[in-house]
Amino acid sequence: MFRKTRIVYMGTPEFSVGPLDALMQSGFKVVGVVTVPDKPSGRGLKMNESAVKKYAVEKGLPLLQPEKLKDEQFLKDLAAWKADLFVVVGFRMLPEVVWSMPKLGTFNLHAALLPQYRGAAPINWAVINGENITGVTTFMIDKKIDTGGIILRTECHIEPTDTAGDVHDKLMELGSQLVLETVEGLVQKNVELRVQRSFIQGSELLKPAPKLTRELQHIDWNDTTRHIYNLIRGLSPFPCAFTELCHSERSEESVQLKIYFGEMRTDLHAEPGTVLSDGKTYLAIATEDGAIAITDLQLAGKKRMDVKSFLLGFRNPTSYVATQGTSKAEMAKAQPVEDE
Known about the structure:
Oligomer: single chain
Structural class: alpha+beta
Low-confidence stretches: none
């Protein structure tokens, strides 16, 4: 019965490919895919296609790439697919004229345990905040952002060394399964929506997941080792935390380093921002209460490498000092709030 349900899938990034593939592999009738328009990127401004578009083209699925979601032609083309259900994973905020179209409604897969981490970057912020549990949630779309009735939730453990990339991959797998269960439940009318407020315990505050900014990426070493370690993990492998090293005697000489991973060192101490190194095997930068030993990094304009390879070509690292970053102030802006 539910295999005949006509589904339109809306998504953009790599995360959205897993659930779409799961629907296809399970024999669901995906009648069309909506994704973002191609964008010019890189130095040659080559047109960049979304991960979902690449998958849809490969599978021969009908495709729409609207500039504007209220465009009359787009709405006409979307309605012509006669969908029973819209499934949204990693797409834009939909206007009511879109999400109210199918008879079974529109649901979204969110990469967090709603109502926690509403917003654009839930995977990153869960790691940045040092959580050890996150998950995926399916919910019906309504007029606000990420506030609709919850259909299903699945938990996922975050290991102490997991990066946002690791958590992304775990959640894509869990999310794919949850999308299948949600579609089946909605079609068979055997799911019960729960209001998000019912998942809040007592006076529990809600942590937001705002868009990632350049200010968040720029490491402020006047912070605890734990906070900086979690920030590096939460921004790895993309968009990546970075620091700027300035030569202590020749201030015009500076380099920018992307930091993909590091280790917490409680045995090293110096003024925050001080570079500590033996010039061969380790490169650490002092924090408020210790240091981060960088293990995986990338110098601007070079390729990603391990610290030993980096030190082979980077002379006198201790003659540099890290400049003042902005991450601590930016993290402070993402304060938990009470549910409205």
